Amino acid sequence: MKRLIALMLLALFSMGSLSACNTVAGAGKDVQKAGEAVEGAAKDCSDGKC
């Protein structure tokens, strides 16, 4: 019984860790896209005609 509970806790912890990695990776991609948009706007405005 203890072994079953330990395996269930391990499975829950593993699932939580994996989903957290996906969330952080998704957030990183969102931040990267926002940075690219800011960079593009900065290049467009570099000639002073914003």
From TrEMBL:
Keywords: Cell membrane, Lipoprotein, Membrane, Palmitate, Signal
Short name of one Pfam family: Entericidin
Residues in the signal sequence: 1-19
Entries under InterPro entries matching the protein: Entericidin
Entry similarity comment: Belongs to the EcnA/EcnB lipoprotein family.
Protein name: Entericidin A/B family lipoprotein
